[in-house]
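Deliverable D2.4 — example input (structure tokens):
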């Protein structure tokens, strides 16, 4: 039995060079049982080692791009030897600001690296689900502004149920509360209990053939 406690893990900001380890050892292993991944890769049970490597490289390149662009805030959780075992990301939706900036070209530091797609990706299924998720997010947040939206939350399966997810959520919620913001997440089934623990309420669902993705909202609770 693994006897590591929450205090054996450390949170820190990510570097671009972390993308390889986070993608390969945290994000991809953590999401393989989720409805999003299984919708994107419906042949998940029969992929070859080479195909799995291609999927992993694709995720690594997208994560690296996100780290370089810095439009989101990211944290990694590392074990005592410095190995990343958890990863989270969040951004702030400024709807009023976005509306004011409509029509202006969006600046990006670098073009996306992952301009290719894995052979096993079901593009139609991915696009359809992405549209459904966006529609649900817009439904919930359409009249709100300055919302913290969680974009990543992953813990390697071998290190789950050791307080790492709670440690990352505690940091996110503390920052969100200090800024007086509400928060929102589209949660995979295994994430719902964690988010509920931190005050997120279920406000909707997006159904897939592999389970529901749960729409969850946390009202603002400005800290004193």
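Example output (designed residues):
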């Amino acid at each position: 039995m693994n006897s590591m406690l929450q205090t054996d893990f450390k949170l820190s900001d990510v570097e671009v060079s972390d993308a390889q380890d986070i993608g390969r050892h945290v994000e991809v292993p953590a999401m393989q049982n989720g409805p999003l991944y299984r919708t994107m890769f419906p042949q998940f049970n029969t992929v070859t080692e080479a195909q799995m490597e291609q999927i992993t490289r694709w995720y690594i390149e997208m994560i690296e791009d996100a780290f370089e662009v810095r439009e989101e805030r990211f944290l990694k959780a590392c074990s005592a030897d410095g190995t990343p075992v958890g990863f989270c990301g969040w951004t702030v939706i400024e709807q009023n600001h976005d509306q004011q900036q409509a029509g202006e070209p969006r600046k990006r530091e670098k073009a996306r690296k992952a301009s290719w797609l894995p052979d096993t990706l079901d593009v139609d299924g991915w696009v359809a689900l992405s549209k459904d998720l966006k529609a649900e997010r817009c439904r919930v947040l359409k009249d709100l502004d300055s919302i913290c939206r969680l974009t990543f939350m992953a813990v390697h399966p071998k290190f789950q149920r050791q307080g790492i997810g709670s440690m990352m959520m505690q940091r996110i919620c503390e920052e969100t509360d200090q800024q007086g913001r509400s928060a929102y997440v589209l949660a995979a089934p295994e994430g719902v209990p964690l988010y509920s623990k931190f005050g997120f309420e279920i406000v909707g669902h997006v159904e897939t053939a592999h389970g529901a993705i749960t729409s969850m909202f946390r009202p603002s609770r400005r800290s004193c």
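The radius of gyration is 18 Å.
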